[in-house]
Amino acid sequence: MQIYFSFRTYSVPVSLIVVLSVCGLVACAPQPEQIRPGEDVESLPVVRESVTTGRINSAVVALIKQADVMINQSRWPDASSLIERAIRIDSYQADSWTRMAIIYLGKENPEQAIQMAKKSNSLAKQNKLLQAWNWSLMSRAYAMMDKPDLAVQAAQTSQRLQQEAQ
Fold this sequence. Notes:
Elements lengths: L3 E4 L2 E4 L21 E2 L21 H15 L3 H14 L4 H13 L3 H14 L4 H17 L3 H18 L1
Antiparallel strand pairs: 1-2, 1-3
Helix pairs in contact: 1-2, 1-3, 2-3, 3-4, 3-5, 4-5, 5-6
């Protein structure tokens, strides 16, 4: 049985976020939403336009959708290759960087996950929900690094951004 973590319209399998099994380090932190079965990362919406061009590249969207399938199957190298191609095509696509953060969490590389989530946030200036999702990923990465204070702060930032987006 696989359980999925859901964040409003964003979802990712718990197997990607190994932190949930780490002694409840983030258990006291505000959590974005309940865990629900049957949802997956494919429900993460794709940003509709690039920061630089003001339009979406259909090749990038296709690569992201393919990567989402690989992420859901925990096929990290395949997902990483697809997202790296998407980033080479358009490095200003915030949700590509979010996918990389998810991939690095899946590979148990929390330091890189944090860097990718921060990069995504720098590009998703007007997208509070994507920023909140990135902060949630950072919270889990900090917990993986045994930094509960930072994990709680990141989770609180995620909650605040989620409320602002409503």
